[in-house]
Specification:
heterodimer, A: mainly alpha, two-stranded antiparallel ribbon, 2 strands, about 75% helix, B: alpha+beta, Arc Repressor Mutant, subunit A, about 20% strand, elongated
Chain lengths: ~220, ~100
């Protein structure tokens, strides 16, 4: 056997081991865009939250004795729905962008988009994400709003760590950072939106550009 | 000069077989259609080489049904993994020897 032949053989083995077990069409550009959406969303949320002032009104209490004070009253519900709407819009846009851009990248590089690797990737990402999502909805319904920011960061981080076995190793470190950020947020109530913007906005832009320059072109 | 040609497994002389084994080294199980797509080969060609690997007991076949469609998956055996590693080592040694010559 010629040296060239052996080297080709080894290269083909290495390539197959990676291609068969890893989804390498994940688009870095979609990470950057997801970060931008998150920052816009966070800015909108901030705007809504802080332009909102409680009004002086009377409110009935449990023992039917009305009290007068600063209350958010009926408009508070509106605020809640606006924030939930923003969060879902950001999520939906990010997922759509991710799918479309990864699909285009896979096509350009001639890699299968729906293979063993992408199926495993989706499964290991979806498990913590759906768990976390449901948990957060349950907590929102029970009125515990403070868990939203830390829990969404932590569960997203866990899903990235789980998924990293099936795509670029870089994703693992992004996941670990999100988890750390989530835990810090849990210690600092009131700064949820800020940390949320860092975790979903800034980190996505940073890692997205790293992936873009390393793998996209 | 001692060339470790005898360590190179005859079963892996065919490139497709070597490729099948490398896929099964890093994946617990892999199904026929995904293999076909990944290796860009034909049904008949892939099936005959899978059969050969199965005969050497380097892989095992799991037949199952997904609904009504048959879904055949393949898994590498301990024996298969061992010979594959030995084969890679032998290839590496060949390169090293050719460099030192």
């Amino acid at each position: 056997m010629e040296e060239k032949e052996i080297k080709d053989e080894l290269a083909s083995i290495r390539g197959l081991m990676e291609r068969s077990s890893k989804f390498i069409s994940l688009s870095g550009l979609s990470g950057i865009l997801a970060g931008v959406y998150a920052l816009i969303g966070a800015w909108l949320a901030h705007h809504i939250l802080y332009s909102f002032t409680p009004e002086l009104s009377t409110f009935p209490t449990d023992n039917n004795e009305p009290v007068t004070g600063l209350f958010y009253g009926g408009t508070y519900r509106m605020l809640e729905w606006q924030l939930i709407f923003i969060a879902f819009a950001v999520l939906l846009l990010s997922v759509l962008t991710g799918i479309i851009l990864s699909y285009r990248k896979a096509k350009r590089k001639g890699q299968p988009i729906w293979g063993k690797a992408s199926q495993s990737l989706l499964f290991y990402m979806a498990t913590p994400l759906v768990t976390g999502g449901l948990l957060i909805i349950i907590f929102i319904l029970r009125g515990h709003y403070s868990v939203v920011a830390p829990a969404s960061l932590i569960f997203y981080g866990l899903s990235l760590v789980g998924a990293s076995n099936f795509t670029f190793t870089m994703v693992k470190y992004l996941g670990l950072l999100e988890i750390v950020l989530g835990l810090i947020t849990a210690c600092l109530p009131g700064y949820g939106l800020l940390f949320w913007a860092i975790g979903f906005g800034v980190l996505h832009i940073v890692y997205g550009s790293m992936m873009y320059f390393k793998y996209d072109r | 000069m001692k060339v470790p040609f005898e360590k190179l497994d005859k079963a892996f002389e065919n490139r497709l077989r070597l490729q099948i084994m490398s896929v099964l080294m890093v994946n617990d199980r892999y199904d026929f259609n995904s293999l076909k797509e990944l290796l860009d080969t034909t049904d008949g060609n892939l099936a005959s080489h899978l059969k050969a690997l199965e005969k050497e007991e380097y892989i095992v076949v799991h037949k199952a049904f997904l609904g009504r469609k048959p879904n055949t998956t393949y898994e590498s055996t301990e024996k298969g993994k061992k010979v594959f590693r030995m084969h890679l080592d032998a290839l590496e040694q060949l390169i090293k020897q050719q460099k030192s010559n």
